[in-house]
Amino acid sequence: MYDSYRPRRRWLRWSLLYVAGVLAVAVVGLVIEAAVSPGSGHPQASGSAVPVFPATGTQVGPVPSTAASGGPPLPGPLPVVQGRELVNGVYLGFPHSMAGAVSAADYVVSEVFSTLDPDRAAAVMRLTAAPSYADAPQQAAQGAASDREDLGIATSGPVPAGYSLLVQPEEYQVRNAHANSATVLLLCDFTSTQPGAGTQTQIAVFPVQMTWAQADWKVASFGTGGDASLAAEPFSSQAASLGWQELLPQESTSAD
Fold first, then answer.
1. Which of 97, 101, 120, 199 is the most exposed place for a label (fewest CB within 10 A)?
2. Is residue 2 predicted with pLDDT exceeding 90?
3. What angle do CA 216, 222, 220 make, to 5 degrees?
4. β-pairing, 43-45 with 34-36?
5. Which of 39-48, 99-108, 214-223, 226-235 comes out lowest in average pLDDT?
6. Contact partners, residue 161, CB within 8 Å, separation at least 6
7. How far apart, in whole angstroms, are the C-alpha atoms of residue 225 and residue 171?
8. Domain contains 6
9. 215 in Cβ contact with 92 (< 8 Å)
10. Within-domain flag for 8
């Protein structure tokens, strides 16, 4: 059963789908929308002073998924690959391909948005963010602290028993794909658990701008916030009609 908990990841805008018998787009509650003053680098919140990661201008309209510029379309279901090396508990070294870009995006979103440990969130982004995304570790730590606050727990220290977040990418699309960059859209189950409220799940569309840097796929930004029209229950006929393709279980090693 999908419930109405609204996580406030304050440095990322996403699209949420509330499911209660039928699918309906949820755009109220704690979902924060913000506009960015062009050239300022600082968000100007619409009705809220809560900071949100600046938009990049990436368009995420419904167009066919493609591989690197001039290449064939990505196949349907995509086996997710794992990075070749483990550095301080973070997998790095994804293959230089669109499958590698999607896999890296899948990994980072799963790691950063599932943790309630600000230090862990920052550690992941220190290793996976592009050099141009210098504020990523600080923003990730602030996001995890905000999630803790929303769950009613202290913003630092051990996570009390019974509290958790889990973001699980289920399907993907690719936009604006080139040999060294792409916008990866991930259709995710977003599950929160807390004493008294139990487990509640909603659907989120995460856009991740990936770039090839330092011989690996890195996160350049978390996009413009997704497109509500692309939200659908994973693996449903509606999701298929919107162009979503399945992410298959992660392989133990990466391959080019």
1. 199
2. no
3. 35
4. antiparallel
5. 39-48
6. none
7. 17
8. no
9. no
10. no
Closest CA to 186 of 211, 201, 204: 204
Return left, alpha or beta for 214; rule: phi > 0 is left, psi -120 to 50 is alpha, else beta.
Answer: left
- Tell me the pairing of strands 164-178 and 90-92: unpaired
Structurally, the chain folds into a number of domains equal to 1
Q: Is residue 178 exposed (0-12), middle (13-18) or buried (19+ Cβ within 10 Å)? A: middle
For the record, the structure tokens of 181 come out as: 């960059």
What gap in Å lies between CA 63 and CA 37, rounded to an integer? Answer: 28
Residue with the larger pLDDT of the pair 84 and 34 = 84
* Percentage with pLDDT > 70 across the chain: 66
Reduced to 3 states (helix: H, G, I; strand: E, B; else coil), residue 228 is helix
Neighbouring C-alpha atoms within 13 Å toward the C-beta of 62: 10
What tokens does 28 get? 């109220």
Residue 10 domain-assigned (yes or no)? no
Tell whether 29 is covered by a domain. Answer: yes
Closest CA to 206 of 227, 192, 229: 227
Residue 191's domain spans which residues? 15-248
AA letter at 209: Q
pLDDT score, position 26: 27
Position 251 scores a pLDDT of 55
